[in-house]
Amino acid sequence: MKIERLSQDKIRIFLTFDDLLERGIHKDDMWREPPKLHELFLEMMEQAYTELGFDASGPLAVEVLAMPAQGMVIIITRGKVNEQRGAAEEEDELEDDIYDMEVTMEQTDVVMYAFRDFEDVIAAAAQLQSSGLSEGGVLYAYKGKYILAIDPAELEQNRFHAVIALLAEYGEATSVTFAVLEEYGKTIMPENAIREICSHFLS
Asked: Which InterPro entries match (predicted)?
């Protein structure tokens, strides 16, 4: 579980599928196990407080983005507490130990892996091409890393997991969302990145 502060009132939590499995939550059952998810949320809030001093009191907006290969990105934004509430009302809320949350959920199918070094991007592209995937892929630069994004429509269903395994060998799952990449990332190769990398950097 990785936690980072985005602003004074906003944090981002990245959970891999391994993180979820360690806590007894299978990715297909993510939204069918309320007690386990409640425990997971409490654990996340404790860790956010310990690591970042993020106090999750008051109303919270929780955005959950499920990604097919990487896991889950959870963005938590703390709202402004209404200062006109009475002390008795605040005590009641503390006793309940229930967070006032507004949850929105999204799912993206785009597979994204980050690479620290361009040599790793070349090595991954070479392996992908030799395994039969020579078309597709968009390459971005974002915060000192290279990120390869692949639309699953470009992958045959039976080769999906093999491609993920290859990408994981050279890169790492990233918590950056595709929307953030599109807006803030620098597009290096807008299409057929795998073929372009291989043709330019492999003799």
From this structure: MecA_C_sf, Neg-reg_MecA
Alpha-carbon distance of 129 to 135, in angstroms, equals 8
pLDDT by residue, tens only, the chain of 203 residues: 899 998 999 999 998 888 888 888 776 666 566 677 778 888 999 999 999 999 888 888 888 888 877 788 889 999 865 544 444 444 444 434 456 677 777 777 888 999 999 999 999 999 999 888 878 899 999 999 999 999 888 777 777 888 888 998 999 988 888 888 999 999 999 999 999 999 999 86
Domains in the chain (CATH in brackets) are: 2-107 (no CATH), 111-201 (3.30.70.1950)
Note the pTM of the prediction, 2 decimals.
0.70
